[in-house]
Amino acid sequence: MPIHTNAYNGKVTGGTRVFCLNSNGRKVAYAVLKTLGAISPGTADSVSYQTGLYEINVPNALTIYVECEFHDIKTGSDWIRNNTTNIGEAICKGLCNYFGITYKKSAQPQTQINLQIAQIAKLQNLMCIFKLKYMVNVCLLLKILMILQA
After folding, report:
1. pLDDT value at position 134?
2. What's the CA gap between 33 and 39, in Å, rounded?
3. How far apart, in whole angstroms, are the C-alpha atoms of residue 84 and residue 74?
4. CA-to-CA distance for 134 and 110, rounded, in angstroms?
5. How buried is 2 (Cβ within 10 angstroms: 0-12 exposed, 13-18 middle, 19+ buried)?
6. Domains of the chain: residue spans and CATH
7. Bridge partners of 4?
8. How does pLDDT run across 52-68, given as a tens digit for each residue?
9. Which pTM value belongs to this model?
């Protein structure tokens, strides 16, 4: 499951977009959209089929592609940076709902998780500013993995 942030024209807080390859991925895409879209500032949430995306076209597994929010305007980028834990938890809750698993909050103290992410973020900050969305995606992925391991 690739987790991304989106960009359009720098004028729109767009919302959450979840892409899937076909009808097999549609239910899981809607499960994640329901939990993540509910907390994102944008209102144009959607699920759509995308057959041209390598990340969901090539794997031989059920795959969705999540665009959390638009990072090319201040409202969206501020929300993304200030809500990485909430974003990760919302995605986890959606996946748990789809698989019929009871969601459990991470037992690991949030300060320890934030410290680990901060260390990675310091390394990522050495990259050019246009790669900010990848730093956020790494942080989200780490939080999701830590929550699932709890």
Report:
1. 45
2. 10
3. 16
4. 21
5. middle
6. 3-149 (3.40.630.40)
7. 67
8. 888 888 888 889 999 98
9. 0.71
117: its two tokens: 């992410």
Nearest one of 33, 26, 101 to 66, comparing CA atoms = 33
Q: Over the stretch 15-46, which tens digit does the pLDDT of each residue have?
A: 899 999 998 899 999 999 999 999 998 888 99
Q: What is the mean pLDDT of the chain?
A: 79
Contact between 14 and 76 (Cβ < 8 Å): yes
d(CA 94, CA 5): 18
Identity of the residue numbered 7: A
Q: What are the Cα distances from residue 2, in Å, to 10, 59, 67, 108, 112?
A: 23, 11, 8, 24, 24
Q: In terms of residues, how long is the chain? A: 150
